[in-house]
Hints:
By secondary structure, the chain is an alpha+beta fold. It has helices at residues 67-79, 94-97, 127-144, and strands at residues 6-9, 14-17, 29-43, 46-51, 54-61, 83-84, 90-92, 100-105, 152-154, 161-176.
Amino acid sequence: MTRLTIFFFSQRKARVCSPLDGALESGHMRALVQRVHRAAVRVDGREIARIGRGLLVMVAVGVSDTDPVAKALAEKIVSLRIFNNGAGKMGLGLREAGGDILCVSEFTLYGDCRRGRRPSYTGAAPPDAARLLYEKFVASLRASLPEHGGKVETGKFQAMMEVESVNDGPVTLWLDTEKC
């Protein structure tokens, strides 16, 4: 097993940054997180999930991702301090601010467009492996919210979906557990 350590150098200091407190051993997941007023997902024209205020999370599983990485990413997302506090600054996490999560599996976050015009998805996990880790990721999100009253809704894995959202801010973050 290899462990990724990233060194950041400034003018006078070097600091070591270990991704997600050591949870990353051999894989990384990607997530696009948007703070929303509301979001919904439809499959075959029928709404299957809807949330009010909260987070829309598009998540992709990579070929070498692991359970600890999925759990750490879920905890990171729930703990992100991207909701406004009483002073109007982003200082509250989802637990403190209250809200829900709509989680949608999206392997296209692994699209590599460095060559040509057709993206390559070789970094994305095969569907069976991705489904298993995606379900564990969603379970970790759900385990993080129950005492705070938030719910976690999902899209339909491997389905063509229509995702609708009304962004709040907008606040959009790209999380890649390969990076700090």
